Amino acid sequence: QVRLVESGGGLVQAGGSLRLSCAASGSIFSINTMGWYRQAPGKQRELVASITRGGSTNYADSVKGRFTISRDNAKITVYLQMNSLKPEDTAVYYCNYRYQVSSTYLEVWGQGTLVTVSS
Prior knowledge:
By secondary structure, the protein is mostly beta strands. The protein contains no helices and eleven strands. It has strands at residues 3-7, 10-13, 18-25, 31-39, 46-52, 57-59, 67-72, 77-82, 91-101, 104-109, 113-118. The strands form two sheets. Strands 2, 4, 5, 6, 9, 10 and 11 form a seven-stranded mixed beta sheet that branches. Strands 1-3-8-7 form a four-stranded antiparallel beta sheet, with no helix packed on it. The termini are far apart. 29% of the residues are buried.
């Protein structure tokens, strides 16, 4: 069974930085896309950033230029470096892996890590 474990959330002042990590446990191969999503209170979950197996990245407009997503395929880990944080970045952040087993496409979510940015 594949599990994702996130770490790195916490409380930070506006303008500060945090680095989130998401590591997979269990056997997982052929990961296509790794991504970070977030959900603020009263809002829908939204994509923050994603990275493909080939390294192509995609960012929400609200985080472009401030956040950087990267992955370590050997460690089956994805990172999110968050700089110049704003109070509106406050949310629970979830990592997501989309992978393939034979001809079946699957996805797994982490449990979430809370990021709180104070003004």
